[in-house]
Amino acid sequence: MVSYIARRIGVSVLILIAASFIMYVLAAHSGDPLQDLEGSSSPNKQALIQARVQSQHLDLPSPVRWLLWLGGVARCIVPIGGGCDLGTTFQNQQVTQLLPEATAATLQLVTVAFVLAVILGVALGMITALRAYSGFDYSITLVSFFLFSLPSFLIAVLLKSFIALGYNNFLADPTLSPLALAVWGVVVGLIVQLIVGGTFRKRALTFVIAGVVTAAILWYMSITKWFTQPSLGPVVVIVFCAAIGFAFVALLAGVHNRKAWLTAGINVAIAIVCYFALQGLLNVSSIGTLIILAIASVVVGLVVGFFVGGYDRGLMMRIGAFTAFFTSGVIVLDRFMRSWPAYMDITNDRPLATVGGATPGLNGDVWITGLDTFTHFLLPTISLLAISFASYTRYSRSGMLEVLGQDYVRTARAKGLPERTVIVRHAFRNMLIPITTLVATDVGALLGGAVITETVFGISGMGRMFVAGLYSTDVNPIMGYFLVVAITAIAFNFLADLTYSALDPRVRVR
Fold it and tell me: I need a labelling partner for 440 at 20 to 30 A (CA). Which of 46, 129, 262, 334 fits?
């Protein structure tokens, strides 16, 4: 393993060096770096041109300038001779100062979109494979191909025009007409009956019940002004926590496992007690407090699973940890929602942002700043999510269908194993092998899509830094963007190789 890692690191370094040379030469010859100054009417134009030529070494050939840049990168790894130096921009700003802020904004955007795309895409792909050639399968296939065909900039513009502006205008008078209630009821009813499936009578009954319940809930939210003063409340929190416990028991252990029910029940009870006991602490919390509480919840779940587990302690610990973490998330969600009216006042009742990554001059606690980050990154995240969602759905569907036809799956069913065990412990693990390859390659695609998304939404991330450098032929910020993307892509490909051996014992890392 050690020799394999050493070889991979060595090969990755060589690939980075070769790719950086190609990228540097192409960027340096993509335009005239003095064009803006040569067209200037400033009386000291020649002095400005000479200063830029000297600071950017424009009098040297691009391969020599690349060698100088590579020497600065080498000092980032081995801090000798003046320390890390990635060059300066045309505005005499150090790239090493710009890159961390830009990288943080981009990673904040890309990470959420990446995680949601994997979870939602794989989950829906599995469900469509288990219900292949049904109405639900055809519907998800239609949506996937539709999203896959849309360019990211068009999705971003549509989200700004219809979702952001439409929702902000709706909040000026958040009441739903009878026609709107009926339309939402019909839409949700159609979706739910596709998911449930079954005979025509069952689907029709599901459609009616889901439509009526949806219309009733929306009517209640409208008359109680829930859209401007939202909260979950104790009853909904208890119901959500119980539903989370039930979901993890059914998914991981099956509904007939008493120890699983006991583990999940204890964690749900602890979460409900904490909901009432920790309200005072949550009112004065910081981001550090929330991180500590999240870690504590996972530890409590693991401890409960350890003592309840018995012969299947590992499974019980997983159920306990997942249940504790997600039930604590419900409590935090409720506290965020109760801060929504205060945030509405700050944003003049137009909370859903369309430009930037934060509200300028905003002062508030962790709940207000968290809502501000959420409203600014919601639409860009959805835009990036749509890029990858369709791919994961289609790959996971085809992978699951292929795995379900394998001999070992038929053997597991012939032995009388429960269908949940066959799907979760046998088929799902092997289905993840091709998805691992897609995940490794999709990271680079998401970072590339962030260039367009950040430009449309005005987020000051790596994408905007790259575009600004490309327009002005400013090579150093372009190469800073290249370094982050290239290192990330190589790292994820390396992790994918290691993941293969974890998912399939026949694969050995040598």
Answer: 129
Residue 221: the pLDDT is 92
CA torsion angle 107 113 116 118 (round to 10): -90
CA pair distance 330, 323, nearest whole angstrom: 11
Q: How many CB atoms lie within 10 A of CB 383?
A: 27
CA 346 to chain centre: 27
User: Could you tell me the two tokens for 463?
Assistant: 């994408």
Joined together, the tokens standing for residue 356 give 């930037």
CA separation for the pair 495, 478 (Å, rounded): 26
How buried is residue 57: exposed, middle or buried, by Cβ count under 10 Å (0-12/13-18/19+)?
A: middle
Give which of 324, 307, 325, 305 is closest to 315, Cα–Cα: 305
Q: How far apart are CA 280 and CA 74, in angstroms?
A: 51
Taking only the tens place, the pLDDT of each residue in 345-360 is 888 888 988 888 888 8
Say which residue, 212 or 497, is predicted with more confidence.
212
Interval 216-233: pLDDT, tens: 999 999 999 899 999 898
CA gap 251, 309 in Å, rounded = 17
CA distance readout (Å), 29 to 33, 87, 287, 408, 462: 9, 18, 46, 56, 21
- Nearest-CA neighbor of 34 among 90, 72, 98? 90
Express each pLDDT in 277-301 by its tens digit.
Answer: 988 888 887 888 899 999 999 999 9
Query: Model confidence over 25-55: pLDDT tens digits?
Result: 999 998 888 888 887 777 888 888 888 888 8
Which residue from 101, 43, 131 is spatially nearest to 480, judged by alpha carbons? 101
- pLDDT band at 13, cuts 50/70/90? confident
Please check the confidence at residue 81 and state whether its pLDDT lies above 70: no
Q: What is the pLDDT of residue 262?
A: 95
Domain ranges of the chain: 2-97, 175-224, 231-348
Distance CA 231, CA 340 (A): 9
> What pLDDT is stored for residue 437 in this prediction?
82
Within the chain, how many helices (H) and strands (E) appear?
22, 0
Q: Are 263 and 308 in contact (CB under 8 A)?
A: yes
Provide the pLDDT for residue 4.
Answer: 74
Alpha-carbon distance 264 to 143, whole Å? 35
For residue 147, what is the enclosing H or E element?
Answer: helix 135-149
The dihedrals phi and psi of 164, each to the nearest 5 degrees, come to -65, -55
End-to-end Cα, the chain, rounded Å: 6
**CA 181 to centroid of chain Cα atoms:** 31
Is residue 330 within 8 Å of residue 354, measured between CB atoms? Answer: no
- Rounded Cα distance, 42 and 22, in Å: 35
CA Rg value for the chain: 27
Above 70 in pLDDT, residue 509? no
